[in-house]
Amino acid sequence: MISTNMALQRNPMATEMNPVLRPFADNPAAFKAVGVSIWAVANFTLFKIAQNHPRRATFIAMALTSAEIAITAHNVNVAQATRH
Q1: What whole-number distance in Å separates Cα of residue 11 and Cα of residue 16?
Q2: Domain limits at 53?
Q3: Res. 43 pLDDT band, cuts 50 70 90
Q4: Per the count of CB atoms within 10 A, which of 12, 61, 74, 78 is most buried?
Q5: Using alpha carbons only, what angle is made at residue 41 by residues 39 and 42, rounded to the nearest 5 degrees?
Q6: How many domains does the chain have?
Q7: Which residues contact 72 (CB under 8 A, 6 or more apart)?
Q8: Dihedral sign for Cα atoms in the order 30, 31, 34, 39
Q9: pLDDT range class, residue 83, cuts 50, 70, 90
Q10: DSSP letters of 16-54?
Q11: Is the pTM of this model over 0.90?
Q12: How far apart are CA 56 and CA 52, in angstroms?
């Protein structure tokens, strides 16, 4: 969320790519509320999956973490693009 907000504020050409969050990109409170809700549902779902399928939950958590790292790196690059 922090890197997305940074990119959207610093780079006028930046746009929210997540189709679920895109409608809320112009409203910071709604954007954060929806983003946190998605995060909470994902983590609760992982918790429930882990009860019966711990390896599967671990794999999903690793994939989500990898995606989050890639998205954050992309957002930082987009935010810094205005400095060059």
Answers
A1: 12
A2: 2-83
A3: very high
A4: 78
A5: 65
A6: 1
A7: 3
A8: negative
A9: low
A10: ---TTTGGGTT-HHHHHHHHHHHHHHHHHHHHHHHHH-H
A11: no
A12: 9
Quote the tokens at residue 31. 């954007």
Give the contacts of 9 (CB within 8 A, at least 6 positions apart). 79
Residue 64 tokens read as: 């989500």
Q: How far apart are CA 14 and CA 8, in angstroms?
A: 5
Question: What does the block give as tokens for 17?
Answer: 């790519």
Nearest-angstrom CA–CA distance, 39 and 20: 12
Query: Which amino acid is present at 44?
Result: F
pLDDT value of residue 84: 55
- In eight-state DSSP terms, residue 15 is -
- Spatial contact of 12 and 20, defined as CB atoms under 8 Å apart: no
